[in-house]
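for the recovery benchmark. C-alpha cells below, seq after
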C-alpha cells in the first residue's frame, strides 16, 4: 500500500480518503451556510407568504409570516399582512394588535396607519382615531384615503360599526384645545 505525503488527502488500499483536517474545513463551510442572515431568511418566508396570498391560501401565508417574524420581529410589512388576513377573517382585535406592531416598527407605513385609523373608529375610540387621522392627514395630505371623511366612510362600512356611526365634527374630550375634526360619532 502506497501512502502519499499530503496533509489533506492520502491514498489507501480502498481509495481516496479525506483526513480530519479536510473534514473540519468541510464542516465549517457547511455550518457557515446554515447560519445565514436572519433578515434574508425572514424575507424568504415573507416572499413565500406573498405567493400563498396570491393563491388565496391565507392559513399557509400566516404560518410563513409568523416564521418571518420569529426571525425578524421588527418586520413591519409582515405585521401588516397578518393584520390584513385577520381583518379578512373578521378578527379585528388581532388585526389591531398586528397594526400596532406594524406602525411601531415603521411609522411611515401609510397603509398600516390608515387601516389602524379605520379600526380605531370601528372600536368607537374617537379620540385615538382622531389623533391617528390627524397624523395621517398631515403626513400624506394628497392621499384621498388619508382624509378624515374617507376614514369615516370606511368606518361606516366597518364590520363593528353596525351602521350606527354618522360623520360629524367631534369635540376633543381628552385634549385641552378645542379643535374639531370630522370623524364618526
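predicted aa per position
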Amino acid at each position: 500500500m502506497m501512502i502519499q505525503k499530503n496533509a489533506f488527502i492520502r491514498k489507501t488500499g480502498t481509495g481516496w480518503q479525506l483526513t480530519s483536517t479536510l473534514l473540519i474545513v468541510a464542516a465549517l463551510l457547511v455550518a457557515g451556510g446554515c447560519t445565514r442572515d436572519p433578515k434574508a431568511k425572514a424575507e424568504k418566508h415573507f416572499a413565500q407568504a406573498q405567493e400563498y396570498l396570491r393563491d388565496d391560501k391565507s392559513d399557509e401565508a400566516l404560518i410563513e409570516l409568523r416564521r418571518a417574524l420569529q426571525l425578524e420581529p421588527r418586520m413591519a410589512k409582515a405585521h401588516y399582512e397578518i393584520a390584513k388576513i385577520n381583518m379578512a377573517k373578521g378578527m379585528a382585535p388581532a388585526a389591531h394588535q398586528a397594526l400596532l406592531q406594524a406602525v411601531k416598527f415603521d411609522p411611515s407605513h401609510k397603509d398600516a396607519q390608515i387601516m389602524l385609523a379605520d379600526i380605531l373608529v370601528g372600536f368607537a375610540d374617537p379620540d385615538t382615531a382622531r389623533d391617528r387621522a390627524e397624523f395621517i392627514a398631515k403626513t400624506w395630505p394628497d392621499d384621498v384615503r388619508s382624509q378624515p371623511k374617507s376614514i369615516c366612510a370606511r368606518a361606516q362600512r366597518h364590520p363593528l360599526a353596525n351602521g350606527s356611526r354618522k360623520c360629524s365634527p367631534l369635540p376633543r374630550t381628552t385634549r385641552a384645545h378645542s379643535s374639531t375634526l370630522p370623524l364618526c360619532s
